[in-house]
Specification:
225 residues; mainly alpha; 2 domains; three-stranded antiparallel sheet; 10 helices; 5 strands; globular
């Protein structure tokens, strides 16, 4: 599952970017892929395969990011983000009890509880619950390091949601998210409050509500609230 991203979009693990605008595509357009690249349904080559290189954002040292100073930087940067739609009725009735388990239960137990509550929940192309859960998965992975990936992937695969939502969750479980999320983690690890705030502001503008929902998940994992 990949998306075609227009110029100006943040980089992301599931995006195909190109500097020029994409041709006009409509619902139901069929694209094909072969050894040369991505083709329009009329046969025109849209993107050469050699230019379709996967992007993986940088990750800081897990021990540093898990420290109190870095976590405080994340909290400060996300203090004024838009409120997640998950905090509105009726969604919050399912979300708040599950969110309260973070910091009280063992991390993976809390994450499993949260995944059951958030998976596929709420409005949006990627449901708001999946966006928030992706923030939690990314935070757990960046604070615990690569050894936790198998457990996080197991949690991500357990979620019943759309194909797109599942792709986002699996990427987050391996420490892959959109560019502002990586920028925030890197800045927090270096106690760079200016760039952390800039990254949070960029995340806040992402999508109709996705940025706010991802930010909610990040804040839950990094600050337990």
């Amino acid at each position: 599952m990949v998306g075609l991203a227009p110029p100006g979009s943040p980089l992301g693990p599931l995006w195909i970017n190109r500097p020029e605008p994409w041709p006009v595509l409509t619902d139901g357009s069929v694209l094909t892929i072969d050894d040369s690249g991505l083709h329009h349904e009329n046969g025109t080559l849209i993107l050469e395969r050699r230019h379709a290189v996967a992007w993986r954002g940088p990750l800081p040292d897990a021990n540093i990011l898990a420290g109190a100073e870095a976590r405080a930087s994340v909290e400060g940067a996300l203090r004024s983000y838009r409120s997640s739609t998950l905090l509105d009725l009726p969604w919050r009735e399912a979300v708040e009890p599950a969110a309260a388990t973070i910091g009280r239960l063992e991390p993976l137990d809390a994450l499993s509880t949260l995944a059951r509550a958030l998976g596929g929940l709420g409005p949006g192309l990627t449901p708001a619950g999946d966006d928030a859960l992706s923030g939690v998965l990314f935070a757990f992975r960046t604070m615990a390091g690569p050894t936790v990936e198998p457990a996080l992937l197991s949690v991500a695969r357990s979620v019943r949601t759309s194909e797109l939502g599942s792709a986002v969750l699996l990427a987050a479980a391996t420490g892959c998210h959109i560019e502002p999320v990586h920028d925030l983690a890197m800045a927090a690890a270096h106690n760079d409050t200016v760039n952390a705030a800039n990254a949070a502001a960029a995340l806040d503008t992402f999508g109709a509500s996705s940025g706010a929902d991802v930010a909610y998940g990040l804040r839950l994992a990094f600050t337990h609230r």
